[in-house]
């Protein structure tokens, strides 16, 4: 089932308060069409290349390894060996997407434990 030629598109939209609690709305297109998997969104205002690295890692797992992610799931070792990410349901420009929750500096993904600045940017 692996398809090494499958590609996704990544958009970085800034000042988009309609689709992101932080105004940063980085997201993918293509996972829905290619695999029937919700596309991904990152709202923590990280550098675009950091968001792209996370999207590319997750897209590789979805497209080439057959993995599927749902709200509440976690995925270990994304972007580096110690960075787990979480997922919550979200909407982006009318689409249902999966928001990728990046950890705070202490590695917290749980909103109850997360630094309030990171929490506000990702959970609203
Ligand atoms: Zn887009």
Question: What's a concise summary of this model?
Answer:
This protein has 124 residues and is an alpha+beta fold. The protein is 25% helix and 24% strand. The chain has one domain (9-123).
Which structural class do the helices and strands define?
Answer: alpha+beta
Beta strands, count: 6
List the ligand species.
zinc ion
- Alpha-carbon distance between the two ends: 37 Å
SSE pattern: EEHEHEEEH
Spatial order of the strands forming the largest sheet: 1-2-3-6-5-4
The main β sheet shows up as: 6 strands, mixed
Domains, number: 1
Strand content: 15-25%
Silhouette: globular
**Helical region count?**
3
The overall pLDDT average reads 93
Please give the share of residues in helix: 25-40%
Rounded to the nearest angstrom, the radius of gyration is 14 Å
Low-confidence stretches: none
Which labels suit this protein?
binds zinc ion, alpha+beta, six-stranded mixed beta sheet, about 120 residues
Question: What would you note in describing this structure?
Answer:
- This protein is α+β, with helices and mostly antiparallel strands.
- It has one domain (9-123).
- Helices cover 25% and strands 24% of the residues.
- The chain contains three helices and six strands.
- The protein has a six-stranded mixed sheet.
- A hairpin with a 2-residue loop joins strand 5 (85-92) and strand 6.
- The longest helix is centred in the middle third of the chain and has 18 residues, at 48-65.
- The termini are far apart.
- The mean pLDDT is 93.
